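forwarding from the other thread:

> can someone predict this with heme C?

sure thing
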Amino acid sequence: MKRLLYSSVLLVLLPALWRVSSVNAARNQDQQPAHQQTKTADKSADYLGSETCMACHEDVVNKFAKNPHSRLALMHGGKGVTCESCHGPGKEHVDGGGDITKIFRFTEASVKQIDKTCLGCHATAHPNFERSEHGKANLSCTSCHSIHKFEDEASLLKVSQPKLCYTCHTDLKAAFAQPFHHKVDEGLMKCSDCHNPHGTFQTTQLKSTADQNAICVKCHTETAGPFVYEHPVVKTEGCTICHSPHGSPNPRLLNVANVNTLCLQCHSETNMGAFPHAVSPSGPNHNQATQYVACINCHTQIHGSNSDSVFFH
Ligand code: HEC
Ligand code: HEC
Ligand code: HEC
Ligand code: HEC
Ligand code: HEC
Ligand code: HEC
Ligand code: HEC
Ligand code: HEC
Ligand code: HEC
Ligand code: HEC
């Protein structure tokens, strides 16, 4: 899809690059890049190309050669309107000897203007942003991304994950510092393996697999099923009814210290209200003698089984 979007950019001749981004957004007038709303008729002559910017912003232009956005220029046979595809036409700015009021400045722009400019080209990739928790909390693309000063080059992030996320979600540091945790701080996993910071249709901006399964099963495929004998809560309540996704003081990231307590939250006469179908263990195997044996010593295939209705194997 992305490829399609950008190859359509290819087909349109200079000087329309700036306009191309609005073509992508033209379905929705509202999404017109910010500074075009005030100046609807930019002329091709208003675009000078990055060679001109080079004269006064040499360091910025030189550094830009490695930026993924430099590809915009290549697409136009090296005509170099790269800078102005974000900052808008530069003629007035240059004619005014670098008049700072005549160029689009992200640092001075409103959240809406910033997002509209970036989404002018990236709307297909991130259609949910405005509805996401981050969008609603008035974050903009540049709360996390920087085009010129980034630590994470691949995703143009101001600072790399998880530091980026911890700058605002300070309370979560403690969760990942617990004895058992997903190895996010160690760099083996990223917050964005489970969350999409641009929003999703799930709660807490969780990602899901292609077949709309819980994101957890993308890596823990053995828990996915389908099984002949399902432990139905795995699907109805989700993994987090038993596991803490970030970290836990308990092995296997369990929510409670004692596995039997976990099971008996549902499988006991007194607690069945919330899970009316969960039966209380009974019979000779659940007697005084075995009550201190971990349920999972016998019920080993706790996520479901293809051969045994009580998950022994
Ligand atoms: C004649 C020299 C000159 C040329 C050519 C020039 N600029 Fe500038 N530009 C300046 C000056 C001077 C400033 C103000 C710098 C300051 O106050 O820190 C500035 C500021 C800016 C800023 C705002 C910086 C900020 O601090 O927010 C942007 C964005 C910018 N220029 C983009 C461009 C682009 C894009 C081009 C090419 C189309 C360009 N400039 C060409 C001289 C120039
Ligand atoms: C993809 C959009 C985009 C492109 C392309 C782009 N810029 Fe920027 N520019 C930004 C954003 C966003 C900022 C705000 C600071 C940041 O996020 O890095 C910025 C800031 C600036 C500044 C202010 C100084 C600073 O670092 O804060 C200057 C000057 C500037 N850009 C010049 C240029 C020039 C020259 C080019 C072409 C080589 C260019 N920009 C290409 C988005 C862009
Ligand atoms: C004129 C169109 C345009 C605008 C405006 C634009 N981008 Fe891009 N962006 C691109 C292109 C083209 C690429 C390179 C994609 C590729 O090579 O697959 C890119 C790449 C990126 C990447 C690197 C990830 C990747 O897929 O390679 C990030 C992150 C990004 N843009 C964020 C932003 C942000 C944030 C803004 C607003 C400040 C912005 N872009 C504005 C066209 C644009
Ligand atoms: C809360 C932080 C945050 C905000 C706000 C944010 N991003 Fe991102 N963005 C990220 C992170 C983190 C990644 C890397 C994702 C990954 O590695 O899976 C990323 C990746 C990207 C990419 C490249 C890969 C992809 O998923 O397409 C683009 C393009 C992008 N962001 C554009 C945007 C735009 C446009 C906005 C504003 C509408 C925005 N981002 C707002 C954090 C953010
Ligand atoms: C600039 C500050 C900031 C950054 C950086 C940031 N967030 Fe957020 N995030 C917020 C705010 C504000 C909210 C909404 C209020 C809340 O739920 O805390 C939010 C909400 C969320 C939510 C939804 C919480 C819920 O209860 O629904 C998730 C998940 C999330 N952020 C993950 C991330 C991840 C992952 C990163 C790093 C890629 C990140 N955030 C980076 C500020 C930030
Ligand atoms: C293994 C997958 C996974 C990883 C990795 C992960 N999360 Fe989460 N996160 C979840 C799930 C699942 C929930 C929902 C928990 C619930 O509903 O009880 C959640 C909830 C949240 C929430 C909202 C509730 C809360 O606990 O505050 C925020 C904010 C959040 N995550 C941010 C982050 C950040 C920041 C990182 C990286 C430092 C991160 N997550 C890494 C799976 C993950
Ligand atoms: C991107 C891959 C990935 C995703 C997504 C993921 N995990 Fe994990 N998980 C791992 C890896 C790798 C380990 C083992 C390494 C470690 O200790 O972090 C692990 C460990 C675990 C463990 C401990 C296993 C043990 O033997 O002690 C549990 C439980 C777990 N994950 C549950 C979940 C749940 C629940 C989710 C969804 C909220 C989830 N995982 C999402 C990769 C993932
Ligand atoms: C009814 C509670 C419950 C639910 C729901 C649940 N688990 Fe578990 N899970 C457990 C228990 C208990 C263990 C510990 C088994 C052991 O130590 O032998 C475990 C162990 C694990 C392990 C460690 C390896 C293994 O298989 O023993 C992983 C990984 C895991 N669960 C992932 C998941 C994922 C992913 C989901 C959601 C698809 C999920 N769990 C749903 C209770 C549950
Ligand atoms: C969140 C509630 C919940 C938790 C926690 C839970 N279960 Fe279940 N369990 C159910 C429900 C609902 C069923 C399906 C109804 C039934 O067959 O009892 C079920 C079914 C079962 C069955 C199959 C019963 C049968 O009649 O075939 C076994 C065995 C079982 N659970 C054992 C356990 C064990 C062992 C644990 C702890 C590791 C556990 N469950 C944790 C709710 C739960
Ligand atoms: C010593 C092995 C063993 C232990 C320990 C054990 N079970 Fe069972 N469980 C069984 C067997 C065998 C069955 C099959 C029915 C039967 O013969 O009683 C069973 C059946 C069940 C059933 C299905 C309903 C029923 O009573 O037939 C549930 C629910 C159940 N167990 C939950 C638990 C829970 C919760 C624990 C921990 C508190 C636990 N079991 C500990 C062996 C065990």
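The pocket of heme C (ligand 7) is lined by residues 182-183, 189, 193-194, 215-216, 218-220, 239, 243, 245, 252-253 (CB under 6 Å). thats all i got for now
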